[in-house]
Design a protein that fits this description.
Layout lengths: L13 E2 L13 H18 L3 E5 L10 E4 L5 E10 L9 H13 L3 E11 L14 E5 L4 E2 L1
Parallel strand pairs: 4-5
Antiparallel strand pairs: 1-6, 2-3, 3-4, 5-6, 5-7
């Protein structure tokens, strides 16, 4: 079950927002990553989390999202993406070790957020990530690193 569902518990259809020059072009890994980060920030802001820092730049700096719960718990989030039918994997174990160490020093919880995308406009047969199109996102929640 994905956390991106509508009020009827059906999968939400999420539109990728992009600049007009990129509309209709194949999405880069960096664009897919930024899309995932934005979706997560929106999801957790709606749930009452306070977003303290966001890094939308693919493979640049970690954690990707720093947030604080209503109970004062800090979370350091590492984001990974995949294109359906691929499963999201922890790919850079050295980064996760660094984030875990940083989180421990700052008394935060290090977590992993993996999001897999399926293009809702093209369906199961054509697995392409295209800028400006609509997507289903599979995200089952945060996993502790």
């Amino acid at each position: 079950m994905s956390l991106f569902t509508d009020t009827n518990s059906e999968p939400s259809v999420l539109r990728h927002n992009c600049i007009s020059e990129r509309m209709g072009k194949e999405m880069t890994q960096s664009e897919m990553y930024a899309f995932a980060v934005e979706l997560l920030v929106g999801l957790y802001e709606k749930s009452g989390m306070i977003i303290l820092d966001i890094n939308r730049i693919y493979q640049h700096e970690y954690p990707n999202i720093v947030m604080k719960s209503r109970n004062g718990v800090y979370y350091y989030v590492v984001v990974e993406t995949a294109e359906f039918p691929q499963k999201v994997k922890l790919t850079n174990l050295a980064i996760y070790s660094d984030v875990k160490a940083l989180a421990q020093r700052k008394n935060a919880v290090p977590v992993f957020a993996g999001i897999s995308f399926l293009n809702a406009d093209r369906g199961m047969e054509e697995h392409k990530m295209i800028c400006g199109e609509h997507y289903f996102a599979v995200f089952e929640g945060l996993e502790k690193l």
